[in-house]
């Protein structure tokens, strides 16, 4: 019945979509725009109906009032029966007991039913009786809800794409998902505790609950890398939500594609909060005072631009606290005023009238040589020019970074050409803020366009006039419309979704921002994100024990206090749904080595498969890893295998594995990286992902590879849902005693 209703809605939307496209043959841009809006709306509705097809209805609540509510991915109503609810959206308040009711606190629920479907067929039904009196003899209650459905989901082979957990959200997760939209919410939790899942379901919940507010300003979900974003991109559509912008920090500056590579050390320096001062200093460094007086001739009169004039003008411009490009106006005005006074004095100011002084100023303003000189002293700058000049000039760099060591400065130095790195993006953003808009070119372009439109409109009217000349009695076109009005009507308006408009606008501010793997963000990246969300309605999820980036954080307070003081709230997730008990026991020792105060999340599953290690000769490492990978592929059947290596071994191990498993993928980037049976990755690239089986190569090298080597090792060990093996040629790190050596 529910699928029948869904089909009817789908048919209706598809019909309307086709009608809009067929019947509206837009005559002018306004009509075209209106048609695009309607067509966009129906297309979005259609895609939403398509996305909720799988598992449309996954639950039922039998209430003590005798009512029976079905719970599903979206709300469906019976049009023929006063819109009585047929299916309740999981986010509706009345659906909440589906996730929170327990035997101790049944919230009016007698029975909760979990329904598992494949395509449109019900495959399993799992009932929980919550009324304790009625439940006598039933199985003992556990802290998990929907246990059977949950375990079935957790035991499934991984597909390389994250699935939604809407049918099995657990109580501690539900509380976070439905937590208030206001303020900054930090969700701290160990690996596999569902932080990513919770963040995405919370996004869907907020969009449902605050649809109007969020539709206008949009929602941004930030992830650590493009592979991760691909991993999660299907979750929100499957929850009926399209139109959320998913991006990495490096993608948040429109027009910049940050693909240049640099050392982790250079990226760490660029991520430091003090770089904000460096950018500010680099800008000030471009506001010059001439060493020697500059002599110019304006309208045959000599003028001298000396140090005092420029210094005073610069001080006034700086004091205005306006961004550099906007403050230029003040600088220019001040210099011109001073030079006008100079000229007037020479000509004898007592002889001049008021108008004369204005004329002198106008002459100065129009003088190209003076303009050129002023442009040199206070150049109009783009963020790109500022930073590429800075990083390619040892002198500029030295002046802007007095606190860096020579060694650190050398790491930042690079040739101008070659593009931008991800760590440059927050610096470009900072520079854009401090430089302000230089919209003169855009304004000129607009004015030119407008003139063209007016001229065209005028031409149209003239033609109409000519045609109408013969019949003076008739009302003429020019009686009703003038060129300006006609041009207005012709102005193109392009239809774009909120997410598209937001993505193209650096100064866009979002209604809500979600950051996943938030521990990886540098101080500069935080500055940038905070600017994107002045309301500070944010959800930040992460694990300070998994910080791999040297510029990342080990304390939420340190990150957030500068922006919101202590006005942020912390929620913790404590149950690990991914990593089985056996693997977690090994990883927990590494966690203790990171910080004995940190507590590992407790795993819900046991697999009976113990993590193993095998030592091989150094010269055979890549080959042996390849052979073991092939064996692992056999073992996991349909599942996915990841080989996690230190960066230095990636290429060698990658090609050895490729020789044995030809469809294996290596490294980040390619679309096959997630869905190949085997993927060879560095730990950084595997962040946030999961696989059925994982082989970790040379852990001692992972450990030694960075200042946060232990954190990286912890991340590597916690990626597997079923099996874990470690292959090494050098001694194992002392924290890996829990592995079972294998011949
Ligand atoms: N309530 C749930 N029902 C079913 N599966 C769940 C539930 N919670 C989490 N999972 C599953 O557990 C796995 C780990 O979840 P997720 O990736 O969100 O964890 P995480 O905390 O972000 O991990 P990490 O810190 O390692 O990135 C995923 O496969 C997710 O689907």
Automatic annotation (TrEMBL):
SUPFAM superfamilies: P-loop containing nucleoside triphosphate hydrolases. This is DNA helicase IV. Residues 168-580 form the UvrD-like helicase ATP-binding domain. Keywords: ATP-binding, Helicase, Hydrolase, Nucleotide-binding. PANTHER family: DNA 3'-5' HELICASE, UVRD / RECB / PCRA DNA HELICASE FAMILY MEMBER. Signal peptide: none annotated. InterPro entries: DNA_helicase_UvrD/REP (IPR000212), P-loop_NTPase (IPR027417), UvrD-like_ATP-bd (IPR014016), UvrD-like_helicase_C (IPR027785). One of its GO terms (molecular function) is helicase activity. The keyword Cell cycle does not apply. Pfam families: UvrD_C_2. ATP binds at residues 189-196.
């Amino acid at each position: 019945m529910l699928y029948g209703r869904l089909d009817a809605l789908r048919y209706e939307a598809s019909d309307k979509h086709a009608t809009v496209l067929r019947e509206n043959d837009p005559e002018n841009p306004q009509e075209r725009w209106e048609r695009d809006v309607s067509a966009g709306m129906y297309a979005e509705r259609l895609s939403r109906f398509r996305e909720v097809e799988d598992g449309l209805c996954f639950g039922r609540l039998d209430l003590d009032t005798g009512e029976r509510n079905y719970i599903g991915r979206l709300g469906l109503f019976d049009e023929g029966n006063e819109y009585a609810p047929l299916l309740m959206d999981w986010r509706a308040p009345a659906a909440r007991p589906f996730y929170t009711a327990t035997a101790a606190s049944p919230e009016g629920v007698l029975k909760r039913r979990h329904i598992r479907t494949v395509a449109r067929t019900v495959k399993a039904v799992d009932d929980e009786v919550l009324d304790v009196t009625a439940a006598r003899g039933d199985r003992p209650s556990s802290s998990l809800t929907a246990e059977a459905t949950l375990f079935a989901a957790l035991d499934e082979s991984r597909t390389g794409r994250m699935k939604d957990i809407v049918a099995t959200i657990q109580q501690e997760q539900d509380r976070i998902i439905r937590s208030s939209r206001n303020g900054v919410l930090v969700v701290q939790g160990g690996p596999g505790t569902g932080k990513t899942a919770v963040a995405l379901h919370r996004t869907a919940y907020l969009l449902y609950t605050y649809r109007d507010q969020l539709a206008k300003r949009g929602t941004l979900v930030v992830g650590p890398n493009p592979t991760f974003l691909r991993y999660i991109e299907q979750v929100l559509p499957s929850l009926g939500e399209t139109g959320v912008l998913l991006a990495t920090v490096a993608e948040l500056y429109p027009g910049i594609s940050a693909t240049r590579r640099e050392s982790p050390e250079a990226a760490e320096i660029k991520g430091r909060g003090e770089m904000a001062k460096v950018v500010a200093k680099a800008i000030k460094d471009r506001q010059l005072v001439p060493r020697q007086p500059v002599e110019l001739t304006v309208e045959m009169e000599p003028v001298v631009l000396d140090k005092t004039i420029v210094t005073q003008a610069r001080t006034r411009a700086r004091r205005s606290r306006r961004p550099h490009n906007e403050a230029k106006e003040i600088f220019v005005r001040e210099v011109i005023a001073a030079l006008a006074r100079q000229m007037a004095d020479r000509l004898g100011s007592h002889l001049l009238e008021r108008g004369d002084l204005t004329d002198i100023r106008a002459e100065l303003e129009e003088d190209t040589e003076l303009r050129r000189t002023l442009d040199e002293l206070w150049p109009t700058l783009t963020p790109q020019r500022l930073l590429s000049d800075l990083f390619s000039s040892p002198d500029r760099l030295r002046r802007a970074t007095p606190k860096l060591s020579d060694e650190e400065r050398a790491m930042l130095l690079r040739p101008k050409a070659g593009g931008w790195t991800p760590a440059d993006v927050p610096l470009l953003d900072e520079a854009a803020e401090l430089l302000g808009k230089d919209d003169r070119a855009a304004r000129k372009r607009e004015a030119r366009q407008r003139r063209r439109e007016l001229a065209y409109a005028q031409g149209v009217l003239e033609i109409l006039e000519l045609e109408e000349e013969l019949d003076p009695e008739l009302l003429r076109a020019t009686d009703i419309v003038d060129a300006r009005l006609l041009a207005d009507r012709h102005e193109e308006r392009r239809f774009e979704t909120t997410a598209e408009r937001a993505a193209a606008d650096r100064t866009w501010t979002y209604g809500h921002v979600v950051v996943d793997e938030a521990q990886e963000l540098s101080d500069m990246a935080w500055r940038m994100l905070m600017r994107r969300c002045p309301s500070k309605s944010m959800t930040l999820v992460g694990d300070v024990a998994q910080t791999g980036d040297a510029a990342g954080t080990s304390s939420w307070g340190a990150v957030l206090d500068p922006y919101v003081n202590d006005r942020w709230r912390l929620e913790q997730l404590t149950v690990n749904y991914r990593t089985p008990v056996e693997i977690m026991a090994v990883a927990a020792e590494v966690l203790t080595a990171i910080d004995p105060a940190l507590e590992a999340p407790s795993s819900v599953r046991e697999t009976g498969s113990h993590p193993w290690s095998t030592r091989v000769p150094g010269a055979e490492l890549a080959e042996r890893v390849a052979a073991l990978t092939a064996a692992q592929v056999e073992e996991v059947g349909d599942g996915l295998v990841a080989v996690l290596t230190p960066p230095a071994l990636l290429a060698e191990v990658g090609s050895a594995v490729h020789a044995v498993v030809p469809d294996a993928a290596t490294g980040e980037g390619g679309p096959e990286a997630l869905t190949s049976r085997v993927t060879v990755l560095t730990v950084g690239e595997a962040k946030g992902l999961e696989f059925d089986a994982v082989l970790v190569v040379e852990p001692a090298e992972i450990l030694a590879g960075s200042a946060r080597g232990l954190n990286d090792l912890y991340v590597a060990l916690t990626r597997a849902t079923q099996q874990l093996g470690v292959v090494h040629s050098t001694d194992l790190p002392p924290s890996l005693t829990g592995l079972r050596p294998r011949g």
